[in-house]
Amino acid sequence: MYSIGTPGRPWGEEEKKQWLAAQTVKRSYADEVLNQLEAVPDYFSVIQYGALPYDESRYPLYALLPKAPLADAPWVLVTGGVHGYETSGVQGALLFAREYAKTYFDNVNLIVVPCISPWGYETINRWNPLAIDPNRSFYPDSPAPEAKLLMDFIGAMPQSFLLHIDLHETTDTDNSEFRPALAARDAIEQKAWDIPDGFYLVADEAAPNLPLQQAIINEVSKVTHIAPADENGLIIGAAVPSEGVICYDKRKLFLCGGFSHATYCSTTEVYPDSPSATPEICNRAQVAAVEGALQYLLK
C-alpha cells in the first residue's frame, strides 16, 4: 500500500498536498541544465518560450532553434525531460546539441527542447507539483503547464515536422515508486510488469514506421544492449512487432511524442539501472537514437 491516501479512494487536494510536501530538491536545474546552454554551437539561438508558474525565475523553459533556417530542409524536433526524473533524456539532448548536431546543420533544421519539466528534474519526479504526469497531458487546455507551454510554442510555428524524437528512460523506480503512486492517486489497480533490461523504443501505433525504428535500434545497439521480449513475448505488457520496439497510440494517450504531428516519430526508453549502464552510456544511447533517426531520413 502506498504511504499516502486511502485504498479504494482517489486522492483529493489534501492527499496531493501531502505528496507535494514529501518532495525535496535533489539537484540543480540551473547548474546541470541552464549552464550547459552556454556551450551550444552558434547555429542555435537559445530562446525562452515560457517559465513554470511554480517559480518562474527558477524554472525558465528554453528551446534551441536554428538562427538561419534552411529554406528547403526538413524540420526535426528533439525533446527531452518531459519526465524530469529520466536524466539521460535531458543530458542526452544537451549532449546531442553540443557535440553532434553540427553534423546535420547543412541538411535539416533542428529544434532541441532539452528539459520540459525542470521541477521534475530537480526533485527527480515523474509528475509535476500538481501530481499530474506531463506526458499524459498533451491536449488542448492542458492542466500541466509543462505540456501547455510547449504546445503553445511549437503550435505557433508555421512549419511542419518531418521527425520528432522524444527522449525517455524506463527505470526500476517505475515499479517501486511511480506506478504505486499512480495506483494510489487514481484508486485504479495497475498491472505489474517486469522492467526490461535494455533499450527499447515506443513507436506510434497509427504510423509505426518500423524501418525507421529498426534504424534507430541498429545505431543504439553499438552503444548499449537492446531489451529482449519477456517470457510472454512482450515489453512492458505490449507486443513487439520489431526488435526492441513496441507501439502506443500516442495521440489517444496525449503523449509528447504525438502532439507535433510529425511524419516520423519515436520515443526512446533507456534503462539506466542495468549493471552495465553508466550515465555516459545512457546519454550516448540517446544521442545514438537521434543520429540513427536522422541518418535514416537523410539516406
Automatic annotation (TrEMBL):
Protein family: Belongs to the peptidase M14 family.
Which cofactors must be present for this protein to function? Zn(2+)
**Full protein name:** M14 family metallocarboxypeptidase
InterPro entries in UniProt: AstE_AspA_cat (IPR055438), Peptidase_M14 (IPR000834)
Superkingdom assignment = Bacteria
The record's annotation in Gene3D superfamilies points to: Zn peptidases
- Which residue intervals define the domain Peptidase M14 in the entry? 25-299
Key words, A-Z:
Hydrolase, Metal-binding, Zinc
- Quote any Pfam family the record assigns: AstE_AspA_cat
Where are the annotated coiled coils located? none
